[in-house]
Each structure stands twice: as C-alpha cells, then as structure tokens.
Amino acid sequence: MALIVQKFGGTSVGSIERIRNVADKVIASKQQGHQVVVVVSAMSGETDRLLGLAHAISPNPDKRELDVLLSTGEQVTIALLSLALYEKNHSAISFTGGQVHIRTDSAHSKARILEIEATRVRHALEAGKVVVIAGFQGIDDGGNITTLGRGGSDTTAVAMAAALHADECLIYTDVDGVYTADPRIEPNARRLDRITYEEMLELASLGSKVLQIRSVEFARKYHVPLRVLSSFAEGPGTKIVDEEESMEDVVIAGIAHNRDEAKLTIMGVPDKPGIAYKILGPIADANIEVDMIVQNVGVDNTTDFTFTVHRNDFAKSMEILKQTSKVMGAREISGDKKIAKLSIVGVGMRSHAGIASKMFGALAAEGINIQMISTSEIKISVMIDEKYLELGVRTLHSAFNLETNG
Ligand code: ASP
Ligand code: MG
Known about the structure:
Elements (H helix, E strand, L loop, with lengths): L2 E6 L7 H16 L3 E6 L5 H12 L5 H25 L4 E4 L6 E3 L8 E4 L2 H8 L3 E5 L2 E3 L5 E3 L5 H12 L3 E6 L20 E3 H9 L7 H10 L3 E5 L7 E4 L12 E17 L4 H11 L4 E6 L6 E9 L3 H15 L3 E14 L9 H11 L6 E5 L2 E7 L3 H11 L7
The site of aspartic acid has 12 residues, from loops.
C-alpha cells in the first residue's frame, strides 16, 4: 500500500462534471489499495473573481482580509469534492489549511510554509478516509489565514507529501507533462519522461507555468517524488527527479521562451564605481525586478548600460531612467519593449563543451541577432527581437535534436 498525494488545479475542478471526474480518479487510486490525500485549487477563474470583488471595494485591499477572502475559493472545492466522493459511496473528509496545521509565516499573499503537523491527516487516512485538503492556504502563529501566492496549491501538495513521507506527489493539470518546447510553437515538441528538479526550477523561473517555483524548490529540498500529468488524458506524464536518476546522454532538456520582456539602455554615463548602483537602485526601490544586465566596456571614461524588465514595468522604468539620466548627465536613453527571451536548459551543459557556440551558430544561420546573453550553470538565455521568437524556438529545437533525443 502506498500513500499518494494527488493535486488537481483549477481547470481540473472547473465544473461539477469535472469535480465528479476528479472523484473517479481518486477512487481509482483508492481501489488500487493506496491511501490518498487530495489537494485542490479553487475552481478555475474563482481566485480572479474574488480578487476583482476586493478591488471593486478597495483599490489597495488590506492583505489580511484579502487572504481571508481568497482562501474561500479552495474551501468551496474541498467541500464539493468530498460531497462527490460521498455520492459515490466513499468516505472522505475535507480540511482547510489551518485545520491541518499548515503553519506559515505572516507574509500575507506570499506566505511560506514553515511546518506541517500532519497527525490529523494521518488519523483520517488510518480510518480509511480520502483526505481532501484546501491548497494555497495556511495559518500563521497568530491564527490568521494566509495564502501562498498564485499557483500556491502546488506547494501545498508538495509540502503535504513531504510531511507525510508520501510515496509520490501527482500534480494533475491541463497539460500531460513537461515538453521540450511549447507545442503551440514547435509541433515536434516532445513530452519528457523525466526532468531534474533543477531543470524544472529553471523552466519555472523562465516562465513555464506548469508548476509554482516554490513547489519545485520544496520538492528538491525534501526529495519529494513528483510527477506532472493530465487530468483529462491517460498517460505517464513527466517525472521530476534528482540528477542521478536523470538520463545521462541528454544534454538539453528543453527550450523556454518569454515574451514579457522589455529592454532599457542608458548611454554615455561616467565609467566609475557606483554607476550600476545609481542606475538600478531607483528601479529596485520602485519594486521593479530586473532580469538581464549588460554593461559595455568603457570608452573615453564613459560607458553604456542595458537592462531588461517585465514589459508591464517598462513605462515606469523609462520614467525612472529619465530622472537618473538627468542626474548623471548621461548622453541618451532608449528602450525597446518588443524583445523576447529564448533559453536552453539542461544539466548536461555541465559536462558538455560547445553548447553555447552551437546555440549561437544555429541562431546566426537563421539571421537572428542576439542582443544580450546571460548564462548559468545549466542555462543559456539570449534576448532577441520578438518577431523572431517562434523561428528561434524551432531553430534551437532542431539544432539540439530535441524531437528525437531521449
Ligand atoms: N487558486 C490559487 C490561484 O489561482 C492557487 C492555485 O490555484 O494554485 O492562484
Ligand atoms: Mg497551477
């Protein structure tokens, strides 16, 4: 007998019919003899609807009250799923995050899980019940309801699996696994059987919305056996594993892309200590996250400095840079919000030389100009003109033989 955690996202519980389907999946696991803990999201669109209500009352809603409101979405789903299980003659019990002691810090709307005291869950499992837990929420030391950030139900599931030492944590979603590239752009994209925690983390931070980043961090830290699979189609999904279990000859796991980028350049600034701080300090103070940064080699004691931000922050960043430019006596500033980021990710880069030149060569052969480059141990990202993004994805996918490798 195994103990498994099954997590179902918003689309998977988006209607009564779908909740009944989820109940069937849970029952199937139960009938294989497993103990089952289910973690659910709010029905699709519900969290956004609740956010809309709050903002209709208050442009800047109090964070504690907002969490009280947002956590209700998941509470609806746990009750409905438990009722669906009852209708199918299976005994279940639903719990909110607080009821099963998902203890978090007090950072409302982005709380971190500190500890889970899972005795109550264990007792219910031992009594033969399916345990249905509300994702995305916890409780702080003052007894206040907290939420874990958008997509946080993934983290609830992984944390629950860690606390219970579950045999597997299954994340059911609307895609049937993790792909070598976005199949809407590259029709030859292939579902990966396995990917490492680290590769998944890079993909999540590069904008793949399959899993919340924190859930992957959590899974890596506690070695939670994790699998992403479809709640609508049969199939093995993608397993997320430690590096030792990954397949050795695979160099690149996948291609990620992100259109939400914008680039700002300030030219002719004095080349002396403190300029990066002077340029980026005010941007950080405005709570704007900077992604890539490039500073040119100085000529005649001046230099150029380029950085990228989320496209939504472009206008505000330009405003700030204008001010900085005046203060510093820069020659000129410019911006471009039609850029995109293209990345290759793979732990195999550690042991293979020539990956970067292969990437750059393939892009050059298609006439795609690289504007900026950044690398980490297992990732190479380039900024390119947005209009070449699709071509770039397909070019790299075939350059690294991703349609067949594996
Ligand atoms: N309901 C929350 C959201 O929409 C949490 C989740 O679905 O994971 O972000
Ligand atoms: Mg999600």
